Amino acid sequence: MDRLHNQPLPQPPCKLCYEHVEDHTHLFFRCRYSKEVWSAITCKAQIQWTYLPWGAAWEWALTEYDTGPQARIMGMALAATIYHLWQERNRHIHNQHYGSSWKMTEDIIHLIRDKLANTRVEDDLPSRIRRQWEVQ
Fold it and tell me: Where are the domains of the chain?
């Protein structure tokens, strides 16, 4: 019986790819599924993203994108993508629902676009960003 307690518990696989052990860094940044989402979001947002460990990601974003419209977009992209990835993981676990990375990407882009369109400081958005996100 004591030998059983000394055995390491098996680590559960990532609920999005089932290929690797799930931890924050893998789930949000290194998983095949999340990389597909990040690739599309960073392309749309024109963000140069470096795949860092979970603890360093926020620090990097704050340092790299300190202020201005691009910083707001970076913050929205980071928060929305992490939120949507976590929600998708939970749907896999609790509802056996499997959404596509393409659909998630579309949802995140629409969310960011809506937030940019409804901001009170619209005049702060350069025309390039308005065109990029199709904000009137």
Answer: 13-133
Q: How far apart are CA 121 and CA 131, in angstroms?
A: 16
Buried b (16+ CB within 10 A) or exposed e, 100-136: ebeebbebbbebbbeebeeeeeeeebeeebeebbebe
What's the pLDDT at 59?
A: 77
Q: The pTM is what?
A: 0.84
Q: Can you tell me the distance from the alpha carbon of 73 to that of 133, in angstroms, rounded to the nearest whole number?
A: 10
pLDDT in tens, 39-76: 999 999 998 877 777 777 777 777 776 678 888 888 89
